[in-house]
Design a protein that fits this description.
alpha/beta, 5-stranded parallel sheet, 8 helices, 5 strands, binds adenosine monophosphate
């Protein structure tokens, strides 16, 4: 089962994806985590994307598509994956659809975490103090929010048009409360996916 989690930066995609891995028995695949690991290890790919990561700008589609395609071929992703941070643009969504179709698979469900902008900023600045992510600074946060609205929200429409079940979940409140809503949303989709 391939589930894609959407939501602006700070909406809790990573946290909710982690909680879902247990429930669904498929891995959490975060392109952001993968790129941060490459950057920290100073691999050639990491060096290529480090400045983009810090500025909150998107990595080139061809780089990210390569990373993702490889990840989906790993044995633990045979039964599916929870995708977090990918696809982020309509061209990436088309590339993912093609990769999945070639393997007789498809995106089964889309979850969109909704959180108001003030809560997002509070969460991201709090995370900045705790985790020191290079992109959790006011300039990069503004860039990432703008990208989400302009480039990623259209991807949700791409899936709606394709007939993939899309459910919006209220992402405010504590982690457990959001997790219960996410699980209820997936349960609600069970009949359709
Ligand atoms: P995230 O952890 O999902 O917030 O991603 C952090 C950063 O990684 C983004 O601001 C981009 O620089 C890069 N990144 C992650 N996923 C993608 C993607 N699908 N396409 C392009 N860049 C990405």
């Amino acid at each position: 089962m391939i589930v894609v989690l959407f939501g602006p930066p700070g909406s809790g995609k990573g946290t909710q994806a982690e909680l879902l891995t247990g429930a669904l028995g498929v891995p959490h695949v975060s392109t952001g985590d993968m790129l941060r690991a490459e950057a920290a290890a100073r691999t050639p790919l990491g060096r290529e994307v480090a400045s983009k990561l810090a500025a909150g700008e998107l990595a080139p589609d061809e780089v990210i598509e390569r990373v993702l395609e490889q990840r989906l071929r790993a044995p633990d992703a045979e039964r599916g994956a929870i995708l977090d941070g990918y696809p982020r643009t309509v061209p990436q969504a088309r590339a993912l659809d093609a990769v999945l179709a070639a393997a007789g698979r498809r995106v089964d469900a889309v979850l969109v975490l909704g959180v108001d902008e003030k809560t997002l900023l509070d969460r991201l600045l709090h995370r900045a103090a705790e985790q020191h992510r290079t992109d959790d600074n006011p300039t990069s946060i503004a860039e990432r929010l703008k990208e989400y609205r302009q480039l990623t929200e259209p991807v949700v429409h791409h899936y709606r048009r394709a007939g993939v079940p899309v459910v919006e979940v209220d992402g405010t409140g504590d982690v457990e409360a959001v997790h219960r809503r996410v699980q209820a949303a997936l349960e609600g989709m069970r009949g359709t996916v």
